[in-house]
């Protein structure tokens, strides 16, 4: 008994010392890499005075950038770094690169990817249209398929996708399947084992390099990408699951948007996938970089963003889109937890007479994020920004429309997680006919929505108003 007591006493002394030591170590990390003074002060105070909780929170949520990913992405001599550089310098591809409007050209310059002409783009409204298009594209694959999703469920549509990939793999098509470890944490091993047994290459995106990163769940690969033969690609808001087909028991419907692109811009989407695959698996997939045929005339820019970028690229994209607006700026997102730069851009746009509208769900899937969104209403409404709530089921699409010159469809939400922490991808368009189709889709959505005003919040209970202010405190990680 005496020896057991000594062991207990030893650990009672050692654990607090260890946590305090880690707290001091993490304080140095915060001081060296903190993004804002407010965030740095908050972490320093928490780690110093409350290390028993703050140490574990910092291990999961503290960092805002993956340093070694950044080095490989921007400065390295790795295969993937050279591949991206060679692609941008390809003579055949340069003939397909165009300079468009200032609104999109500055985005092209920031992300070092060209606007590619010669595409045919199709808006896919809601799950049935999206997955039927994707499954048809997979069935037509002759050489390879690249497929990447944040969340994959082994349900009806998930199994249809699995069976389609297995059929193509057995037919000799190279299939690369990449999913996020956190988003698809519930994906059964039997699902991936069946794919692997059929010859499908499986990749799991995780941030597990180095002992500290092993515990971090902050960085998530939120991209949803399908590429077939380097010619056709699909990007948008849908994950894989029956709920995305509108079969959720919780919601009466599921409103989401994807876009199919046939043409040269697919190589930009492919490059985004290949970078993620290289990070996850340490090797390059066997794909073609030959310029695909032109299927139409639409110019498109692919914008992959993430914490591996040297600047906060997703936030820059949103701010540039808002600043470019002279007549209207419509932004649709399931989550509205913006950073300061986006808030100021929205306020300024409304003050200069732009029709600024924000559309969020009336029925949330994440209550805390929904509460936080209401807290921002007071800041934007005072400048003339109008907010709406979509009442027909759950709204999950990520779309923006600026004047008659720029539209975006992709995976990035209007929240801090997408703006700074997640890996995202957004497709931007300038074709006049495509813009009109996006406008018509947005008008249909606004017709099924209700205005949200500050009076609506003031009429709610004190408990609700306290909840939205409390939820605001967690906005940096929402």
Folded structure, characterized:
- The protein has 478 residues and is of the alpha/beta class.
- It folds into three domains: 2-62, no CATH class; 68-92 and 103-298, Endonuclease, Chain A, CATH 3.30.870; 313-477, Endonuclease, Chain A (2-Layer Sandwich).
- The protein is built from 18 helices and 20 strands.
- The chain has a 16-stranded mixed sheet that branches.
- Helix 1 (2-33) crosses helix 3 (51-61).
- The longest helix has 32 residues, at 2-33.
- The mean pLDDT is 85.
- One of its GO terms (biological process) is cardiolipin biosynthetic process.
- It is an enzyme of class 2 (transferase).
- It comes from Desulfosarcina widdelii.
- It is a multi-pass membrane protein.
Taking the sheet with the most strands, its summary is:
16 strands, mixed
Mean pLDDT: 85
CATH homologous superfamily placement of the largest domain: Endonuclease Chain A
Query: Strand pairing plus helix content: what structural class?
Result: alpha/beta
The assigned CATH architecture of the largest domain is 2-Layer Sandwich
- What is the CATH class of the largest domain? Alpha Beta
- Return the domain count: 3
* Beta-strand proportion: 15-25%
DSSP helix count?
18
**Range of helix content:** 40-55%
The Cα radius of gyration reads: 23 Å
User: How many β-strand runs?
Assistant: 20
Q: What are the low-pLDDT stretches, counting only 5+ consecutive residues below 50?
A: none
List keywords for this structure.
Endonuclease, Chain A; 46% helix; 478 residues; alpha/beta; globular; 20 strands; single chain
């Amino acid at each position: 008994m005496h020896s057991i007591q000594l062991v207990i006493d030893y650990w009672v002394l050692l654990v607090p010392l260890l946590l305090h030591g880690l707290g001091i170590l993490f304080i140095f990390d915060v001081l060296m890499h903190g993004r804002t003074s407010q965030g740095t002060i908050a972490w320093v105070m928490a780690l110093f005075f409350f290390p028993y909780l703050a140490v574990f929170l910092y291990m999961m949520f503290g960092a805002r950038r993956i340093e070694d990913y950044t080095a490989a992405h921007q400065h390295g001599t790795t295969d993937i770094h050279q591949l991206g550089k060679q692609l941008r310098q390809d003579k055949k591809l340069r003939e397909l690169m165009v300079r468009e409007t200032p609104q999109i050209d500055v985005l092209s310059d920031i992300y070092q990817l060209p606007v590619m002409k010669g595409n045919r783009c199709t808006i896919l409204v809601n799950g049935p249209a999206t997955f039927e298009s994707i499954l048809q594209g997979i069935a037509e694959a002759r050489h390879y398929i690249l497929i990447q999703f944040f969340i994959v469920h082994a349900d009806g549509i998930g199994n249809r996708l699995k069976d389609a990939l297995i059929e193509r793999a057995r037919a000799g098509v190279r299939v690369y399947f990449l999913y996020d470890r956190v988003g698809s944490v519930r994906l059964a091993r039997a699902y991936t084992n069946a794919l692997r047994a059929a010859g499908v290459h499986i990749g799991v995106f995780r941030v597990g390099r180095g002992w500290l990163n092993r515990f971090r769940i902050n960085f998530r690969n939120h991209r949803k990408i399908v590429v077939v033969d380097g010619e056709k690609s699909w990007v948008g808001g849908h994950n894989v699951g029956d709920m995305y087909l509108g079969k959720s028991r919780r919601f009466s419907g599921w409103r989401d948007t994807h876009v199919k692109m046939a043409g040269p811009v697919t190589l930009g989407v492919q490059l985004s996938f290949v970078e993620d695959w290289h990070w996850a698996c340490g090797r390059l997939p066997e794909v073609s970089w030959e310029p695909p045929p032109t299927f139409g005339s639409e110019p498109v820019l692919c914008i992959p963003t993430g914490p591996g970028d040297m600047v906060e690229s997703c936030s820059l994209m949103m701010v540039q889109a808002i600043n470019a607006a002279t007549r209207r700026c419509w932004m649709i997102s399931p989550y509205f937890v913006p950073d300061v730069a986006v808030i100021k851009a929205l306020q300024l746009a409304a003050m200069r007479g732009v029709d600024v509208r924000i559309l969020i769900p009336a029925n949330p899937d994440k209550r805390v994020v929904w509460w936080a969104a209401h807290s921002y209403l007071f800041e934007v409404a005072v400048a003339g920004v109008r907010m709406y709530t979509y009442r027909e089921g759950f709204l999950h699409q990520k779309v923006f429309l600026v004047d008659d010159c720029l539209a975006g469809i992709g995976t990035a939400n209007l929240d801090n997680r997408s703006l700074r922490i997640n890996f995202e991808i957004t497709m931007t368009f300038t074709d006049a006919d495509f813009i009109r189709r996006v406008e018509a889709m947005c008008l249909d959505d606004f017709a099924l929505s209700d205005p949200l005003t500050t009076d609506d919040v003031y009429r709610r209970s004190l408990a609700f108003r306290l909840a939205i202010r409390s939820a605001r405190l967690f906005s940096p990680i929402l």
